[in-house]
Design brief:
single chain, alpha/beta, Dihydrofolate Reductase, subunit A, eight-stranded mixed β-sheet, 5 helices, 22% helix
Length: 203
C-alpha cells in the first residue's frame, strides 16, 4: 500500500483543530474551527474521491479518539460508510483496546509496523490529520504522497505540520487547484531529501 498523508492547514502551517472550536484544545489552543468557513461542495467531492482510494486508515491516538467519538453517530454523512467500515490502525503506546471496529492498535516501533503495513497489497493507507504521526513517518521516509488543503487564514498559534527542527524532505508537485470557497489544494510526492543550490552560480 502507498502511505498518503492528508492534512488541513492554515497559511501559517497550523493543523490543529480545523473542524470546531472544541475539536482539540490541547496546549491551550483556542482558535479551532478555522477550516470550516472555506468548505464547499467542490472540496467535499474532491475529498470523497480521495477517500474512495483508501484500503485502510491510520491515526494517531488523539485524532483516532475524536473520529471514534464522532463518526459512528454521523451515519447520514456521505463519508460515514467508508470511515466506519474500513480497517483502521491507531499508533499509540498507551491504548490497549480500541472500540471503533475494525481497529488494530500499533505500539512499540510504530515506524516498523507501518512499514509492514505498506508491504501488504492494496491501494492507499491514509493518514487523516494526526500531524505528529505524519511528521514522524515523513522523517522515517515512509510517506509517499502528501495532500494538503490550505485555508486562507493565519491563526497565529497551534501545532504545525512542519515544526521548527523537523526532518527535511524533498517533494515533487503533482497537482494544484483552488476551490470556489478559497482552499488551495496541493498534492506532492516524496522524493527523498531536498536539494540545495546557490542562486546565480555558474553551471
Amino acid at each position: 500500500m502507498k502511505l498518503v498523508v492528508q492534512e488541513f492547514l492554515t497559511l501559517d502551517g497550523v493543523s490543529q483543530g480545523p473542524g470546531a472550536p472544541d475539536e482539540d484544545t490541547s496546549d491551550g489552543f483556542t482558535r479551532g474551527g478555522w477550516f470550516v468557513p472555506y468548505l464547499d461542495e467542490t472540496f467535499e467531492r474532491l475529498a470523497a474521491t480521495w477517500l474512495a482510494e483508501a484500503d485502510a486508515l491510520l491515526f494517531g491516538r488523539r485524532t483516532y479518539e475524536n473520529f471514534a467519538r464522532d463518526w459512528p453517530r454521523m451515519t447520514d454523512h456521505p463519508a460515514a460508510s467508508a470511515l466506519n467500515g474500513l480497517p483502521k490502525y491507531v499508533a499509540s503506546q498507551t491504548l490497549t483496546t480500541a472500540d471503533w471496529n475494525p481497529t488494530t492498535v500499533l505500539s512499540g516501533d510504530v515506524a516498523a509496523r507501518v512499514a509492514e503495513l505498506k508491504r501488504q497489497p492494496g491501494r492507499e493507507l491514509q493518514i487523516h490529520g494526526s500531524a505528529r504521526l505524519a511528521q514522524s513517518l515523513l522523517a522515517a521516509g515512509l510517506v509517499d504522497t502528501l495532500r494538503l488543503a490550505i485555508a486562507p487564514v493565519v491563526v497565529g498559534q497551534g501545532r504545525r505540520l512542519f515544526p521548527d527542527g523537523g526532518a527535511p524532505a524533498g517533494l515533487r508537485p503533482v497537482s494544484q487547484r483552488t476551490t470556489p470557497g478559497g482552499l488551495s489544494v496541493h498534492v506532492f510526492e516524496s522524493v527523498g531529501l531536498p536539494e540545495y543550490g546557490t542562486y546565480g552560480a555558474s553551471a
